[in-house]
Amino acid sequence: MKIGIDKIGFYAPHLYVDMNKLAVARDVEPAKFTIGIGQEKMAIAPITQDAVTLAANAAFGILDASDKEKIDYVIFGTESGVDNSKSAAVYVHGLLGLNPHARCVEVKQACYGATAAIQMAKGHIALNPESKVLVLGSDIARYGLHTGGESTQGAGAVALLISADPKIMVLEDQNSLYTDDIMDFWRPIYSDKAYVDGKFSNEQYILFFNKVWEDYKEKTGFGLKDFEAICYHLPYTKMGLKALRTVLDQGTEEDKDRLLANYEFSKTYNKNIGNIYTGSLYLSLLSLLDLKEDLEAGSRIGLYSYGSGAVGEFFSGILEANYREHLYVNQHTELFESRREVSVEEYEVIFSETLPTDGTNVELEIDHDPAVICLAGVNGHSRQYINKLR
């Protein structure tokens, strides 16, 4: 049975800050942000958007009535959860009006969560071929103003519909995994901002990539020549390039040129959104599919997922015939074109707006947020979500 990605879409907030201007405000040479880490714009989530609304908006853009009826499993990968008990998936299920006879759960392992969700989805569909599974990767990356990690923040979500006989990509069965208990990045339960040992995390990202890549090659017999492109989890776009460069000498000059050229396509969305944690790898994949118009059906795409703490996985997919007919390129182009730049001063104000933590009720102004689905406030310790079209 062929199982894989039937639909894929993303959503990001309507606000962003220019990384050149942020660098100037932080007394940093702009090239350190735009070239050194490879970021140009950073999406900013207003207080009316959280991990739930970002994911719901991403899914809203791709699901039709038939999908909503057939989806019987929603798996939400995030490290920006809004409740320690109720899963973010249940909120999205309600906001989208999905089939009530469904299982809804939230999974967590740093930026690896959506990949774990996809593997869970494949198992479910193998047992229930008529089912569809909605996989969500949604996060808001927060390190704090004037911190070392500030330039690698971002916000957004990717939604993937996983099914049998998928229209876009068949996910191959071979994969390679590696886990080690390390402290390269973490966010204690009491903190709304992450902590990171940046140099160590970069080293581990590359180390894990090399371990899973070598194991994958041994299991499958594949090499660089068998891949049209390799997509990476991108906390910042230079990170994936650093990992790719460590294996390029294993191929020919033609392999090197092809993989480097296609990496440029795969990083474009990410460099204009920033880090979205669990959705980052799949935003990279989506960028490649949307922007590289001559990718041929039958092409094998490699996928490297890394979640700090840490879990790494390498797996692959094969593009289906006529896959481009099932992409949402125009929708994604419109999303980027409709965004509004804010000044660094405005960004700092927006970043500093937070919900009360003492149980105080609050009503939020959602008219300024163009998203269909918004957070409208908190009442009785309960977040109040609004789907403007329902």
TrEMBL record:
Top EC class, one word: transferase
EC number: 2.3.3.10
InterPro entries (alphabetical): HMG_CoA_synt_C_dom (IPR013746), HMG_CoA_synth_N (IPR013528), HMG_CoA_synthase_prok (IPR011554), Thiolase-like (IPR016039)
Name of this protein: Hydroxymethylglutaryl-CoA synthase
Statement: the UniProt record of this protein carries the keyword Acyltransferase: yes
Swiss-Prot/TrEMBL GO biological process terms: acetyl-CoA metabolic process
Family label: Belongs to the thiolase-like superfamily. HMG-CoA synthase family.
Active site, per annotation: E79, C111, H233
Binding site for substrate: G148
Domain Hydroxymethylglutaryl-coenzyme A synthase N-terminal, residue spans: 2-165
UniProt keywords, alphabetically: Acyltransferase, Transferase
One Gene Ontology molecular-function label: hydroxymethylglutaryl-CoA synthase activity
Pfam families from the UniProt entry: HMG_CoA_synt_C (PF08540), HMG_CoA_synt_N (PF01154)
Annotated Hydroxymethylglutaryl-coenzyme A synthase C-terminal domain residues: 176-248, 267-349
UniProt: (3S)-3-hydroxy-3-methylglutaryl-CoA binding residues: Y143, K242, N275
PANTHER family: 3-HYDROXY-3-METHYLGLUTARYL COENZYME A SYNTHASE, HYDROXYMETHYLGLUTARYL-COA SYNTHASE
